Amino acid sequence: MNSLQDFVRKYYLEDGYNCxxxxxxAGNAYYGLxxxxxxxxxxSGFGSGMYIGxxxxxxxxxxxxxxxxxxxxxxxxxxxxxRPEISTCVRKFREAFxxxxxxxxxxxxxxxxxxxxxxxxLAAKVLEETAAQYGILPSSNTES
Length: 144
What we know:
Layout: H1 4-14, H2 19-31, H3 37-40, H4 47-53, H5 57-70, H6 79-97, H7 102-109, H8 117-133
Helix pairs in contact: 1-2, 1-8, 2-5, 2-8, 5-6, 5-8, 6-8
């Protein structure tokens, strides 16, 4: 079985997706979310903190993955699970990175060689820990 980080490496390095797209693609493969390629485009504009250094795209991708795992109808119908799980993910992300904003994360975690891969890998670790804490487990078909 591939790990979430294996999928992150594939989608970021091999396929060239940005951080938000990478986390969503990796989460889709790892958790068996059933999203289609067209669905993935919804997060394209969230890379590089919405291209203005705001909230990190890897965090946004993580929230999208958790949302898809939790919500069956709409957010308001699932706030009892959605709120604590998303809050935990954001808190853990802030603890891991010292911020949630791309403009503050990028100078520390970005490199010319691998760009934002390290950010995506650590974000995936936070996502996986949060998901496991709340009983969200990987799909059994995570072979690539």
